[in-house]
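Dear colleagues,

As part of the handover before I leave the project, I'm documenting each prediction I ran so the next person doesn't have to rerun anything. This entry is a single chain, and its sequence is reproduced below.
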Amino acid sequence: MLRRKINEKLISWKNNQDKLPLVVEGARQVGKTTSILEFAKTSYKTVIELNFYRNPGLRRIFDGDLDADTILSRLSLYSKNWKIIDGSTLIFLDEIQHCPNARTALKFLAHNPRFDVIASGSLLGLNFSEISSFPVGQTETLTMNPLDFEEYLWAMGIDERVIDKLKEHLTDLTPVDDFLHQSMLSYFISYMIIGGMPAVVAKFSEDRDYAKAQRKQRSIINDYKKDVIRYADDTEKVKIIRCFDSIPSQLAKDYKKFQYSVVEKGSTSSKYGGALLWLNDASIVSFCHNLSKIDNPLEGFSIPNEFKVYVNDTGLLVSMYANDTARRLMDGDLGIFKGAFYENIMANCLLYNGYKLYYFAPHSNLEIDFVIIFKGKPCLIEIKSGENTKSKSLRTVLNDKKYGINQAIRFSRKNIADTGDILCLPLYMAPFLSDTEKNDWQNKLTPPEDLLQRMVEG
């Protein structure tokens, strides 16, 4: 059984006296059902599981009146072994996207001290128009992603003390021992190739066979496409698959802004925009929007029609390229194509840590890979795949007062180094970026400044 961080979040939710029904979202096959049931076995005396995909007939339980007493009486007819133990029963509504009325019913099941409620779904095929009354403010939401790098290291059998040591180096800004540094770089490249889909990681942890892992990854991609055929509107099916299949080509370009003309010559957002949104709603891809200006809040300066599209699991992305791509990625001989994978893995790391994705490209000669709000202020993020860490764009933005930016983090194969306005971190530190936010070292990246002077100038 893979160790997942979501278990700690589920325990925290259970211990909250004012909790609401919890909706666990995420793409298919990221481990939602497995993690919830594992948590339930150790946290409740009874679990009532309703899987609306496996047993479509269960949807009838939520026809008609949706008050808690009516639902409970119908549940009692569902199973002879049905039983509620006050305060120690979990009702688990799995694949809830297949039962819109169950989604509505969550608001009627809220604040009931007799039982807890968890629902899970991938959003695939969910027709929001079928939901009579969406339970706004009556549920809590938790997004489950593929395994992050730390979870991957757990699966590979890395001692917890080694991971703690890495975090200590990040907190203290001290270089990592060279042996550990090189080992972690190798593990990070391996993680980039394998990704974080539980079935792939579990298999790879057993046999360390990249070829078998890639076959499993391609099977997952085929399953995603089957879901498109099964759930998407007829007018969107082909468009969604075309958009998805175009992503490797989109990211292989020097200029990685998503272009509809790559999907189909002469095409525009009016034809393919809805298809992209479907992939995003299904948690298969994420958008990274360009900024018209770097300022807080970033979303206020997001340019709607200028964005990149990243696959939410870099291992799946790697498997979408030629058969020898994984080997060439390990050998470092992919040339400009490396940028596709390194940008995508950084997008994954930021996304898994709760950051929204933005980049900054005011013109063709200047582009910052990512921009995040860090320690309450905009921070530039740059990722380098090799030893050459020179960056004209990063230095231009930092040196030009019109941008008003004074902190940046560069990830590369080099060890930890603090150069003042740029913090240089090894690639494998990116997944631990959120862990450092509780510490004070970021203040080194943000020199004291005269707020009044900035207000006058700005």
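Residues 124-129, 435-458 have pLDDT under 50 and may be disordered. The chain has two domains: 6-143, 152-457.

All the best with the project,
I.
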